[in-house]
């Protein structure tokens, strides 16, 4: 690709593979699949710079979260010669009338898909003079997610529509990848893996370890009671031909609950009501089992306290069962004693060892639940380890970190003001946190996409390490191998795409 007027080559030297991918992206609707940390955003920069130099069209880049939107703006500002007043990050906090004016004067826009969809539908935004749509984390372009709707509006409105989709992990199912391609109107696919010659010099080694802990005897005793109840509910669904195996997954139960719920809404059938309650009971106890095995006593104790406040017939029936009553009694005893999951002490041990080796070490701990994040923070505080929580803002309660607080936390982490960032899923996608030494999974996740994104927080600029904390013989092990096999399948699909 020839030199571009809008690129500041003193601050950014494009890599060969980035230029080659951008060369395709300026001609065709392109899906770019590139491992985390290898500069997908810079491919967007190159493509956008070419569009600005060679057309009069405007550019829109959409990303799933506001911190990521701001991060993309920051990247564009740092490596281009584009007038900063022409590059605009849009949020819902900007008044509608002001956004309408900004659309007129700007050239490059950054926003979440929901903002764009709402502004288009309300008549604030005319996409006819936009020539390039960049879709970050484009594996989200499935079903009815707002990404798909924005692409539809752009494709039907733009006079010269060009689409660039960026992802590190398109998914482990062929039909999902095909859906992403279809929804983005993809004409060309550019794939790079760690094994490609032009990528190899920029790939840093990451060591992956599995550290196992044993399930305590008290936990096993509680699990036996909960599982006995759970199997009874599954058997009732099995006898009614609503499920076909006792190894039914939580996702399958949730799908079944939706189907029965829809049937009940339409017919008010008593049988449907009966099995709706049974299905709900199975889901609730499956979640309790998951909390016990992967999180510990504190969140499980809180879960049953919340259930006692619930007035639903399924919750009342669960709490009146002798097995559940016995289980809750033991949970309460262990809670009073302060007994916790063995993973928490192992986590503290790992982090202490890392800090001894390197005082300013940067560690990210991923946990699925906010309560677990708070609990980990408390344990690290007791052990004199500087840490911060990194969570999203709950829509209903408003609790959590605001966008401004999230950005501030990342900046403080980058400037080594603390060692450990404890994050929920909000820390998975796109965050630019350079030189993270260690990523710890407090529990494995069954999704290959989320596993890849979490693991990709390390090994970006230097050697990285990833640790999975796994409780033997529990859902932790199932989830770890589920994600492992899905990722293996995804790599095979990507290799087939490369051959084609």
Low-pLDDT runs: none
* CATH class descriptor of the largest domain: Alpha Beta
* Helix run count: 18
Give the assembly state of these chains.
single chain
Number of E-state strands: 13
Give the strand content: 5-15%
The termini sit apart by: 24 Å
What is the name of the CATH superfamily of the largest domain? P-loop containing nucleotide triphosphate hydrolases
Widest β-sheet, arrangement of strands: 3-4-2-5-6-1-7
Q: What is CATH's topology name of the largest domain?
A: Rossmann fold
Number of domains: 3
The name of the CATH architecture of the largest domain is: 3-Layer(aba) Sandwich
The main sheet comes to: 7 strands, parallel
Rg is: 25 Å
**Structural class designation:** alpha/beta
Draw up the topology in text.
Layout: H1 16-25, E1 30-33, H2 40-54, E2 58-62, H3 66-79, E3 87-89, H4 96-105, E4 108-111, H5 113-121, E5 130-136, H6 146-157, E6 163-167, H7 174-183, E7 188-191, E8 206-213, H8 217-239, H9 250-267, H10 270-294, H11 297-309, H12 313-319, H13 322-337, H14 342-357, E9 363-366, H15 370-382, E10 387-390, H16 403-414, E11 420-423, E12 438-441, H17 448-455, E13 464-471, H18 475-499
Parallel strand pairs: 1-6, 1-7, 2-4, 2-5, 3-4, 5-6, 8-13, 9-11, 9-12, 10-11, 12-13
Helix pairs in contact: 1-2, 5-6, 8-10, 8-13, 9-10, 10-12, 11-13, 17-18
